[in-house]
Amino acid sequence: WDETHFGKMGSYYINRTFFFDVHPPLGKMLIGLAGYLSGYDGTFPFQKPGDRYEQHNYVGMRGVRLCRLLTALLDQVRGLFSLVPLLELSKSLPAALLTAFILIFDTGCITLSQYILLDPILMFFLMGAVLSMVKCNSCADRPFSASWWFWLSLTGVSLAGAMGVKFVGLFVVLLVGLNTIYDLWDLLGNLSLSLVMFGKHLLARVLCLIILPLALYTAMFAVHFAVLNRSGPGDGFFSSAFQSQLIGNNLHNVSVPE
């Protein structure tokens, strides 16, 4: 059922047809982009679950079904995303390897990654945020170094990605936020650290973990509205002034009083 739902939205992006959905746009835009790059023309109706794709090139939107090698590579990425943070946190190679092994062969993860769904994309950004946060913590002894800035910025990018796919991504924002509060509280209690230096730490986190994710999140919607410029099933949720900007709408280019 979900593949029918999100595959249809991928088609909407390819056809530039406006629609409304409860989730933010990033995941569906990536599905549409994958279909476009793999030669899907957006003509399959996605009317009900179980409909045969026949000659339609749906494979690209399923992503990992491109070939067995790609499936294996993505499983290794999932294992790496769990291995590195656990190795940093536990300092135990056996524990980290065991967890990575369990995730690689988890049938739930494998099944989710076989279909046109938002969940694998969401998991990628969630695990990326945790990985980046843990790696940034490991650079605490060399703040403001190139690697410290890289991992801190990548954490912000991953947070934007997680929020941009589904609002459940806010839970990883909460995790990173609590970690940041703990980190700042620890720095504030360090009497050898000047208030100026503490202010720099605070400013760096505001820039990378608040301003950067919000800017990227806003940019996703800018792309969303720029691409979907044709009238579609989501018109009625928006104002007449907005509908007048959609090609094919009854109000297109009609003068609408304030």
UniProtKB/TrEMBL annotation:
Coiled-coil regions listed in the entry: none
InterPro entries for the chain: ArnT-like_N (IPR003342), PMT-like (IPR027005)
Lipid bilayer topology: Multi-pass membrane protein
Ranges of residues in domain ArnT-like N-terminal: 1-229
Top-level lineage group: Eukaryota
Compartments reported by the entry: Endomembrane system
Keyword Magnesium: no
UniProt GO BP: protein O-linked glycosylation
A single GO molecular function term of this UniProt record: mannosyltransferase activity
Listed pathway(s): Protein modification; protein glycosylation
Any one GO CC term of the record: endomembrane system
Transmembrane segments: 121-137, 149-182, 202-228
Keywords assigned by UniProt, alphabetized: Glycosyltransferase, Membrane, Transferase, Transmembrane, Transmembrane helix
UniProt-listed Pfam families: PMT
Family the entry assigns: Belongs to the glycosyltransferase 39 family.
Protein known as: Protein O-mannosyl-transferase 2
